[in-house]
Amino acid sequence: MTRGKQKIDAQRRSAEKNQKAKGSQLEARAVGLKVICAICKVQLANEKQLIDHYGSKHPKEKPPSSSE
């Protein structure tokens, strides 16, 4: 019956590991989003995404230069 005890122990360890991993990732997400659209205030990760965003959401507007 050794295998039964090993299985129960493995399930318990797995459950403990999964509980520690849960939590909010909002702080990590906020750190990654560094560029903000001046028109609609959406947060984006980089300049390329901002240019793509302007092309799809604000086609009549000119994207800001990379120096801003």
Would you mind describing this structure in some detail?
By secondary structure, the chain is mainly alpha-helical. Helices cover 56% and strands 6% of the residues. It is built from three helices and two strands. It has a two-stranded antiparallel ribbon with strand order 1-2. The longest helix is centred in the first third of the chain and has 20 residues, at 2-21. It starts with a helix and ends in an 11-residue tail after the last helix. The relative contact order is 0.10. One of its GO terms (cellular component) is nucleus.
Outline the secondary-structure elements.
Layout: H1 2-21, H2 26-32, E1 35-36, E2 43-44, H3 47-57
Strand content: 5-15%
Q: Terminal Cα separation, in Å?
A: 68 Å
Strand order of the largest sheet: 1-2
Categorize the overall geometry. Answer: rod-shaped
Structural class: mainly alpha
Quaternary state reads single chain
Task: Round the mean pLDDT to the nearest integer and report it.
Answer: 85
- The SSE order reads HHEEH
Q: How is the biggest beta sheet arranged?
A: 2 strands, antiparallel
Radius of gyration using CA atoms only: 23 Å
Number of strands: 2
Give the count of helical stretches. Answer: 3
**Helix percentage range:** 55-70%
Instruction: List unreliable stretches of 5+ residues.
Output: none
Keywords: Cytoplasm, Nucleus
Subcellular location: Cytoplasm; Nucleus
Protein name: C2H2-type domain-containing protein
Domain C2H2-type: 37-58
